Structures are given as structure tokens and as C-alpha cells.
């Protein structure tokens, strides 16, 4: 094997190892109830795609050539960046939804507090 082939194998092994480590970490977070299953799907999808590209070198080369990427292993970083962007958009949507629900909850609580205050004041009035 020449130096270039050894370097490519090293990149593949590191990419596979990193992908498996991320997937195991996400699985452990789910097991410890630190991460809900519905939020882990994008992470598992990214890990599977990274493993497929890392193992199936021919597919990686073909996709890289199709996209005009000169160095095929660099495509792995492009894929990781893509999934990072998907995660950021996904969590932005989740945070926006939670912010809206939080605002509605605060408004409902303020209305209930005002109503309770009014009921207590009515209760204290002499008949």
C-alpha cells in the first residue's frame, strides 16, 4: 500500500469511529432520559449516512464527483455540515414553538391570577 491509500483508510476508520461514537452517545442520552427519541432521529440519520459514505467508498466517490468535490473524503465534512444545519433549523423551530407556548402560558397565568385576586376581593366585601 502506498502512502495515499493508507491515508484514505485512516480517514475512513476515523469517520466510521466518529459516527459510531456519536450514535452511541445519542443512544446513551436517550437511555438516561436526557434526550427524547423524536429529537434523536436527525442524529441517527446523520450517523447512518456518515457510516454508509465511510464504508461504501465507491458511493462517496460518485457523489463527490457529481457534486464537483475534488477530494472525496472532504464530502464527509460537507455531509456533516448539512446535518448540522438541519439540526439547527429543527431546534430553531422547536425553540420558537416553546417560546410561543411559554408566552401563552404566562398570559393564561396572569389572567387566572387576576381572576383569583378579584374573587378574593369579592369574598372580603361585606354583604
Range of helix content: over 70%
Largest sheet: none
* Radius of gyration using CA atoms only: 26 Å
Shape: rod-shaped
The ordered string of helix (H) and strand (E) elements is HHHH
Mean pLDDT, to the nearest integer, reads: 87
How many beta-strand segments? Answer: 0
Which parts are unreliable, with pLDDT below 50 for 5 consecutive residues or more?
none
- β content, as a range? under 5%
Q: Could you say which structural class the secondary elements and strand pairing correspond to?
A: mainly alpha
Tally the helices.
4
Structure, briefly:
The chain has 127 residues and is an all-alpha fold. Helix content is 88%, strand content 0%.
Write the layout of secondary structure elements.
Blueprint: H1 3-31, H2 37-55, H3 57-67, H4 72-124
Helix pairs in contact: 1-2, 2-3, 2-4, 3-4
Task: Describe what you observe in this structure.
With 127 residues, the protein is mostly helical. It has one domain (3-124). 88% of the residues lie in helices and 0% in strands. It has 4 helices and no strands. Helix 1 packs antiparallel against helix 2, helix 2 (37-55) runs antiparallel to helix 4 (72-124) and helix 3 (57-67) crosses helix 4 (72-124). The chain is rod-shaped and about 100 Å long. The N and C termini lie far apart (99 Å).
